[in-house]
Amino acid sequence: MTVLTRRKSTAVLPWIIGGILLLGTGAWFGVPYIMNTVGNPEQKETRTIESWLAASATMLPLENAEGAQFASLLKKADGQALLVLNQQAEDGKAYQAWKVKGDDITSLGVVGLRTLQMDTTGLDAVLVSLEPQSGSDAPTQILGDVQLK
Fold first, then answer.
1. Gene Ontology cellular component (predicted)?
2. CATH code, 96
3. What is the DSSP string of 10-74?
4. Which residues neighbour 109 within 8 Å (Cβ) at sequence distance 6 or greater?
5. How far apart are CA 71 and CA 85, in angstroms?
6. What is the pLDDT of residues 6-22, one digit of tens each?
7. Are 16 and 55 in the same domain?
8. What is the per-residue pLDDT across 102-133, written as a single tens digit (0 to 9) for each?
9. What's the gap between Cα 146 and its chain centre?
10. Per DSSP, what are the bridge partners of residue 118?
11. CA–CA dist 103, 69 (Å, integer)
12. I need a labelling partner for 108 at 20 to 30 A (CA). Which of 29, 54, 121, 146 fits?
């Protein structure tokens, strides 16, 4: 091995070590950041709410019998809407949204954390109830509603 060959091989070694350290540092600091901003369900919901507000959705309040607002319905002109509860349901319970059309009340689904997307086209109202975590066939503890017509 000549002196020139030996010098080339030893000059590459610091670059390899530097690259490994750089990748390790990126993984050490980058992975937790990505997990907290991309994988965190609460932050995903916050970004969803922000995008609906940025899209100029109309905010309709849902109030309980005492007149206190417990949720909002963000509604777009095309009838798409996002139900946003002020807080998550207590343990063992879930919020369930219902569509009202005439005398017919049908479940729109159980709210995961605090939001539920729906189509309100042709509906008279949307109401929200507090139910067992798995939901109910009919609303049992109605918290309030929002009239759409």
1. plasma membrane
2. 2.60.40
3. HHHHHHHHHHHHHHHHHHHHHHHHHHHHHS-HHHHHHHHHHHHHHTTPEEEEEE-TTS-EEEEEE
4. 96, 97, 116, 118, 135
5. 4
6. 555 566 667 777 777 77
7. no
8. 999 999 999 989 999 999 999 999 999 999 99
9. 21
10. 81
11. 25
12. 54
CB 95 within 8 A of CB 102: no
Cα dihedral across residues 134, 135, 140, 145: positive or negative: positive
Contact residues for 36 (Cβ-Cβ < 8 A; gap 6+): 43
Greatest mean pLDDT among 24-28, 30-34, 57-61 lies in: 57-61
The domain tally of the chain equals: 2
pTM, two decimals, is: 0.72
Are 125 and 148 within 8 A, CB to CB?
Answer: yes
CA angle 140, 144, 147 (to 5 degrees): 120
Q: Are 58 and 19 in a shared domain?
A: no
Q: How many residues does the chain have?
A: 149
Nearest Cα to Cα of residue 76 among 101, 54, 96: 54
Find the domain containing 116 and state its range.
45-147
Q: Are residues 19 and 56 in the same domain?
A: no
Q: Which residue has the tokens 């607002």?
A: 69
